[in-house]
Amino acid sequence: xxxxxxxxxxxxxxxxxxxxxxxxxxxxxxxxxxxxxxxxxxxxxxxxxxxxxxxxxxxxxxxxxxxxxxxxxxxxxxxxxxxxxxxxxxxxxxxxxxxxxxxxxxxxxxxxxxxxxxxxxxxxxxxxxxxxxxxxxxxxxxxxxxxxxxxxxxxxxxxxxxxxxxxxxxxxxxxxxxxxxxxxxxxxxxxxxxxxxxxxxxxxxxxxxxxxxxxxxxxxxxxxxxxxxxxxxxxxxxxxxxxxxxxxxxxxxxxxxxxxxxxxxxxxxxxxxxxxxxxxxxxxxxxxxxxxxxxxxxxxxxxxxxxxxxxxxxxxxxxxxxxxxxxxxxxxxxxxxxxxxxxxxxxxxxxxxxxxxxxxxxxxxxxxxxxxxxxxxxxxxxxxxxxxxxxxxxxxxxxxxxxxxxxxxxxxxxxxxxxxxxxxxxxxxxxxxxxxxxxxxxxxxxxxxxxxxxxxxxxxxxxxxxxxxxxxxxxxxxxxxxxxxxxxxxxxxxxxxxxxxxxxxxxxxxxxxxxxxxxxxxxxxxxxxxxxxxxxxxxxxxxxxxxxxxxxxxxxxxxxxxx
Length: 563
Hints:
Helix content is 53%, strand content 10%. It is of the alpha/beta class. It is globular and about 85 Å long.
């Protein structure tokens, strides 16, 4: 029985059935500082029921409580403050962490359920910019968190390899491009053509008509259109994969929009069979008024498909292939309304997993307060940012630890980790204004700070390599260690919360908190003093190292042993 359960049980007995165990547990609070106890029970809500002042209720309860399991229980105004038995609590916590190792916090709540995650999804023939970072790293971290909670995630890089933009790109290439230039510098040249198209079509709107014709040719299997499309796709994928390798992100499938092109006919037929398609100004739409939504446009007046047509085919394929427990779309917040429409259409179609479809939105990433856009030519390349971050990390490491053996490898771990952590420490729906120098600081709420805290723990363990650190008898009485021990005990609950909320920032903020408590402990206690509690203190250091490394892993960040 953990301490929350012990507090709940003691209060339930004292309250004699006036609140259920669940009601008591829901009211328990965590005091901000340990001097006010380790768990608190407010009595305000009982005042109306018991017709007594909250302070009196707290005192009456304290008089009835069985305090055997606690160091002490104090009444402070309307609060009952519970102080845990530090020695027993530290022993139980450290033994649990050291016995489980990297598996600490793992649970089987997901029962092996499949969870396809639509993530990253860059558009072919455009470079991966900072705008692609968020979906990629948020989706990757959510996959790790889901696995930790017993689910089976399927990371699906749903490439933007179809659509009207290819009509525009082919048009631009035919007008201004040449093969030699594209082969020499594929992505940059293709982007140059794409940006030029959008500048020129302001004064020449007829270009849009030509682009629509080329996309229709592509849909109809035109040989030249298909050859150009395939070439653009392969060149792009090669560049994308270099970035993914740098980020340490892998995918289970790259089924882009084109994969579903031959599945659109069935979608349209199902919609017709269910009498869901209605004509509107020559186009085919699904009426969603009963969901208080605008009609979903399924086919244009010329019969061309749209994003939603392909997304319906995608959802249908995932439903049949994976029978998903959840079907997640890690896509920017600006698409929230669109996903409401998609979900409504799927429900109307009777797709089994429609209720499990969940949009996982995130805010914009800006640079100097300005939104990034390929169309306007305002692009900051992700590969260049990662390269610069690794370079700056290398300079800092060289300054701090010039004798470090594997400086280049550590610089990469720190530089890339700083970018990933810097994104994930923010609640995903918040907008982020990116400043590289801020992400790379070794102090403050950064990835390098957490990595350095882990490396510090490993350094202590190396210095004490002659001491046997075991998962037994780790009884610590040092009050300076108390906040760290409590933080370690919180990890399984943080793993569950991050999964429930699909929120990597829960883990990132937890890692910062654990690192801070550990560094405070390190500053105030002589860990390597030769006395009876030395093995227990080292067990604490080992537990911190284990949990910091696992927290970083759940975020997709590596944890070097030396920095």
